[in-house]
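User: Just a sanity check before I run the rest of the batch. Below are the structure tokens for the first item. I only need the designed sequence back.
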């Protein structure tokens, strides 16, 4: 992809990158829509790609391009609005939590992980005609049990296929690792499964964002019955008192309503 080659150069040509983006109307319009969203908190409305690149930098713009392309690819599965709404909730909640809790991790990587943490779900829907029915038959949402049942029935889990997709799209290694390790979250945070520190922090914040999102909306008709021990592990790892988290959680849910 010519755009990817330009973005990875030591001295990227901003004018060339802007021109490549503007050739694709879907990407062009989606980037401007995203950049002008409340998430970025910009004081003025951005109307040009060169201006956006100048404000946010090449890496952020390229991350947005990759997310847009991935979303368009995955959306070919069919009606996925509720899936993407939830993914957007989780990604934005993650970045808010980082600021509120004072966690020092890359916000762009965290945002991308929030968008793609369950990207294997639509891929499984695309690959297996009976996958939606399979999910509807799942009682509760135990990540480890779900991975085992998926592997038994389909040969692999949506966590594994999601991580593989992240690798093929040359996303940061920590994103693929976090997607893959979600079923082993507690063991990862309690240092029984090997993972680097950035991935541990990313997973801990992601878990809290998922918990808050689950209070606001459910998708795929899966009720998260294993949330408490996962949240407890995340809070312990981040050294956040439960009372402080519950207060913050209530505030954030009120802002989402």
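Assistant: Here's the designed sequence for the first item:
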């Amino acid at each position: 992809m010519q755009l990817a080659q330009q973005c990875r150069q030591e001295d990227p040509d901003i004018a060339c990158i802007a021109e490549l983006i503007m050739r694709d109307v879907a990407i062009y319009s989606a980037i401007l829509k995203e950049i002008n969203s409340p998430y970025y908190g910009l004081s003025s409305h951005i109307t040009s790609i060169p201006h956006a690149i100048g404000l946010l930098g090449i890496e952020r713009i390229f991350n947005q391009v990759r997310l847009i392309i991935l979303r368009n690819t995955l959306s070919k599965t069919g009606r996925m609005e509720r899936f993407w709404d939830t993914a957007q909730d989780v990604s934005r909640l993650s970045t808010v939590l980082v600021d509120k809790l004072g966690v020092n991790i890359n916000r762009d990587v965290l945002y991308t992980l929030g968008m793609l943490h369950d990207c294997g779900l639509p891929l499984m829907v695309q690959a297996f005609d009976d996958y939606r029915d399979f999910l509807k038959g799942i009682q509760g949402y135990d990540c480890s049990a779900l991975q085992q049942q998926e592997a038994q029935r389909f040969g692999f889990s949506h966590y594994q296929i999601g991580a593989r997709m992240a690798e093929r799209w040359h996303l940061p290694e920590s994103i693929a690792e976090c997607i893959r390790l979600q079923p082993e979250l507690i063991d990862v945070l309690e240092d029984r499964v090997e993972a680097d520190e950035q991935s541990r922090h990313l997973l801990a914040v992601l878990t809290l964002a998922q918990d808050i999102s689950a209070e606001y909306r459910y998708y795929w008709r899966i009720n998260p019955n294993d949330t408490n021990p996962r949240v407890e592990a995340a809070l312990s790892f981040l050294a956040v008192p439960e009372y402080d988290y519950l207060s913050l959680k209530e505030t954030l849910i009120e802002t989402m309503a």
